[in-house]
Design a protein that fits this description.
The chain is α+β, with helices and mostly antiparallel strands. The chain has five helices and four strands; from the N terminus they run H-H-H-E-H-E-E-E-H. It has two domains: 15-84; 86-161. It has a four-stranded mixed β-sheet with strand order 2-1-3-4. The N and C termini lie far apart (64 Å).
Length: 162
């Protein structure tokens, strides 16, 4: 996991996925720390197993049989650094996209760039249809509203001079 630019496993599709995993790992770290402190002071620790970690958290912690507090802290640091170095694209659609649709879009961006890309998905019923794509440097508007507006001038000329 050590490279100049942090790469995230493919299990992460959105910024929310990474943020959720960071929160989940932080909670797991707190449970591990509480157990370690309880053992040191001789208090009977809560031995109930925490909720099963998500696939994303398990993927990040893979290779560590019984993760320690240090392992979890390292995973959190890794995710936070990767999140700051990863290209983030915002996709605004007229209607909510299914999980499969979101997955397809993220995979398409990744295949297009050959890099890790995360997406933020949002909806805006004002665009009437299509999508608007916000990259770090540009906006690409493929919405129905923009297409209609662009064609109005052509229609107007046709009606006036037709």
């Amino acid at each position: 996991m050590s490279s100049d630019r942090q790469q995230l496993p493919d299990v992460f599709l959105t910024v929310q996925d990474v943020s959720h995993c960071i929160r989940e790992l932080a909670e797991h770290k707190n449970r591990l720390y509480s157990r370690a402190v309880a053992l040191r002071v001789g208090v009977v620790a809560d031995t109930s197993e925490p909720a099963v970690l998500s696939d994303a958290a398990q993927t990040i912690l893979s290779g560590t049989r019984q993760p320690t507090v240090a392992d979890v802290e390292a995973a959190i640091t890794y995710l936070e650094k990767a999140l700051t170095e990863t290209t983030i694209v915002k996709i605004v659609a007229a209607a909510p996209l299914s999980a499969g649709g979101q997955r397809s879009i993220v995979r398409w961006f990744r295949s297009l760039t050959g890099q890790m890309v995360l997406c933020n998905f949002a909806t805006d019923n004002m665009i009437a249809g299509g999508v608007v794509v916000y990259t770090p440097k540009r906006v690409f508007d493929y919405s129905y509203t923009t297409q209609v507006t662009a064609q109005l001038s052509v229609l107007q000329k046709e009606l006036l001079h037709g």
